[in-house]
Amino acid sequence: MQTYAGVSVVNALPSWYGSSMAVDLKVNVSIKETNNCEKKYNILIDTILDFFREKFNIPCLDVQISSEIPEKSGLKSSSAVSTALIGEIAKKYGLEIDVPKYSAILSLKAGVSYTGALDDASSAYFGGVAFTYNKEFKILDIMQPPEISILILPRGNRNININLQYLQKYRLVFEEIFRIARKDIIQGMKLNGLLIASILGYETNEIEIALKKGALASGISGNGPSVFAVTKIGEEGPIIDSFSRFGNIILTRPIDYVSRN
Ligand SMILES: Nc1ncnc2c1ncn2[C@@H]1O[C@H](COP(=O)(O)OP(=O)(O)OP(=O)(O)O)[C@@H](O)[C@H]1O
Ligand SMILES: O=C(O)C1=C[C@@H](O)[C@@H](O)[C@H](O)C1
């Protein structure tokens, strides 16, 4: 099954309300039955396989993953991998399950997520811009994305310490940003991107430059360290010029929402 990376509209850590926009960086997962039940992958994949073996009597599986998303980068790689794997299992064994919700529950169980990241899992699985309340595993809305270009400075291997209690001191501000984002995705993305960068202790230099050069929004995606900016289609030039000083750039676009039913 194919799923997608995402960039943040609203980070869910401060308020449990989160929003993520699917972007055109793909993950593909395929599975095959095997007699070798000893094989270990990583904590996320092993947690998912163990759960489906125990709860749904699924046999042991060989898992093949191909991913265009750097890990631990803020670009929602863990949700893309988990929804693709769970979706593939559901398809092969005819399970009528809520794939993003199982992804959220099992990401929490595996310890790769703070809130379950249902926002990331929903955009990874369905495309579009997902708005969720992660505390109750609820999808509130999935919207079609605006017509924009997305420029990413991809950075992996995040190694900052995240203090959840400190982030949650900003709950009210992020609830307000979430409300703004539901009416104006880009405006919400801009406020979140700037604020989360400062709160998590990242440099805001690249973000400020992107905004000065005309980006509609710019910020840290997820918990970082990747930085992104969005522009009108055809107006990427000045941002590409300024971002290219900082490293390789990925130029991509949002993925539309498509129902999987
Ligand atoms: N290509 C891959 N193959 C196997 N597992 C992967 C792959 N990519 C990501 N993962 C899993 O996802 C985990 C990374 O999750 P993490 O939440 O740190 O990154 P992220 O999803 O990029 O970050 P964020 O949630 O801030 O967007 C890895 O530890 C691994 O378990
Ligand atoms: O771990 C989590 O629960 C999350 C991680 C980031 O991707 C956030 O952007 C997301 O909203 C929630």
Automatic annotation (TrEMBL):
Q: List the subcellular locations.
A: Cytoplasm
Tell me the keywords, alphabetical order: Amino-acid biosynthesis, Aromatic amino acid biosynthesis, ATP-binding, Cytoplasm, Kinase, Nucleotide-binding, Transferase
Q: Where does ATP bind?
A: 70-80
Spell out the PANTHER family in the cross-references.
Answer: HOMOSERINE/4-DIPHOSPHOCYTIDYL-2-C-METHYL-D-ERYTHRITOL KINASE (PTHR20861), SHIKIMATE KINASE (PTHR20861:SF3)
The species this protein belongs to is: Sulfurisphaera javensis
Q: Which reaction does it catalyse?
A: shikimate + ATP = 3-phosphoshikimate + ADP + H(+)
Query: What EC number(s) does its UniProt record assign?
Result: 2.7.1.71
Q: Which InterPro entries match?
A: GHMP_kinase_C_sf, GHMP_kinase_N_dom, Ribosomal_Su5_D2-typ_SF, Ribsml_uS5_D2-typ_fold_subgr, SK_arc
* GO CC annotation, single: cytoplasm
Known Gene3D superfamilies for this protein? 3.30.230.10
Q: What is this protein called?
A: Shikimate kinase
| Domain spans labelled GHMP kinase N-terminal | 47-128
The UniProt entry's GO biological process terms, in alphabetical order, are: amino acid biosynthetic process; aromatic amino acid family biosynthetic process; chorismate biosynthetic process
